[in-house]
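Notebook, p. 212. Picked up where the previous page left off. The plan for this session was modest: take the two constructs that came back from the sequencing core last week, fold each one, and keep the raw output in the notebook itself so nobody has to go hunting through shared drives later. Recording the first one now, exactly as returned: residue sequence, then the structure token string.
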Amino acid sequence: MDFLIVLISLAVSYLVGSIPSGYIITKAVKGVDIREVGSGNIGATNVKRALGTKWFFIVLALDALKGYLPVILAKQFFPHLTALPELNAIAAVLGHTFTIFLNFKGGKGVATGLGIFIALAPMASLSCLVLFVFVVWAFGYISLGSILAAFFLPPLVFIYGESGFYLSLVMAAFVIYKHRENIERLENGTESKFQLGKGKK
């Protein structure tokens, strides 16, 4: 019975993670395929380029929710399955980054990862969020904020003594790897800066 619960839970978590929030919203609001805008990524940063800052925060929240719900529901309804929250977390991130609805091409997992660790390690998540906001405010680079937040997540989880330390190591490595092109652009000085305001008309 537990095996069946785990199997169904993982499948549902993957499908929830696969919902391409940025693609759906950009298509509905402007009739535009987000994959043909800017970087071609379906995440919140690229949605901002197409629709403006308001939609950046909406997509960010929705993508975070895709990570939060599978974890928190597993913790609440199946507490005896102690590994299930983290297994659901992995399934949700894989769904977001390799969504079945867009030929297995999705986002970079930052917002979904944030939702996961709000459920698993809220203090570490809050600290990383503060760091992210500060870096974006000080330097103007969403990618740099994401990379540094991912880098500092594992030590913060460890320092606070919260759950998900080994998962945080995997997530940090995954997010940084997904930002390898951004790292090259940061080094070359060609990375786009984040600016409040409307996107392209």
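Okay, moving on. Second construct, recorded in the same format:
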Amino acid sequence: MFGEVWVYAEQRQGKLLDVSLELLGKGIELAQSLGSDLASVLIGDGIENLAPELICYGADKVYVLEDSRAQLYEPNLYARLLSDLARSNEPEIILLGATALGGEISAAAGARLNTGVTAHCIDLYISKELRLIHVVPWLENKVMEIICRRNPQIATAKPGVFLMPTRDEKREGKVLRIPVEIDAEEPKVRTVEVNEEKPLGVLLEEADIVISGGWGLHSAGGFEPVKTLAGILGAAVGGTRPAVDKEWIPQDSMIGQSGKTVSPELFISIGASGAMHYTTGFSRSKVILAVDRNPEAPIFDMADVGIVGDLEDILPYLIEEFRQARKAA
């Protein structure tokens, strides 16, 4: 008999993050393979109303840990509550979103539970030996499969990696209210206010068109052609780690395993060779257009349309063609 599969349901200001619902989709597969239940864990204040939504997306039960002192995210407190709940119920697997909060909670909970944590998984499946296999990108466009011999097996995945399951309003499940014990001195470091910066321009995760640039733009004089093309198409702008290191784009615009995952209608990659740590960030895009000077670049293996040539020669023509197409539309 296997323990439950858990999904930590991350919420902000009373709204569930999409990554939590996406993880429920993967959780359904894992729970069915093990013959166990799928549960979700909610921590916060005034969040019990979110439990039915989690059930609609596949949870068989929802553990609700609600307390006014947990209204704002507290890393040590949230990790402690999740760990205590895990010790009491012995889940087989715990899945969390690879967000800033999810990454912090997973690491702290893993330490408290004396188990391993695999971050930024691009796939998860149950082996013939009925162990969770964590799939992560590795070197030279290969993947590495990891097995954790301790329970619970903890893994994180970025938003957009897994498909969101179909919502079913007819699903039924249990809502379990868990008493919360918080010492008067806990937490020692207290969150007093949360301020979120409003994004500039089109949100990467919501854009229909995303244009991303890499180190190859160095030969074309920098990132301006990407920004020009984005302005013409009304697209969001992203890039690779070298583009971040070059300070062409901010950290939160990086695409890939250590950045954001997007799935637009059209993804245009310019001057990036296509290492797996980068391509995992947009592999679910409907159409991928790649431009690079190296005909052997891995990016062309996954591109629907590929253009090979020097960027300083190709980009002016590409910009003009899209400009004329927009005018004619």
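Notes on construct two before I forget. Residues 65 and 178 are 5 Å apart (CA to CA).
Flagging for discussion at group meeting.
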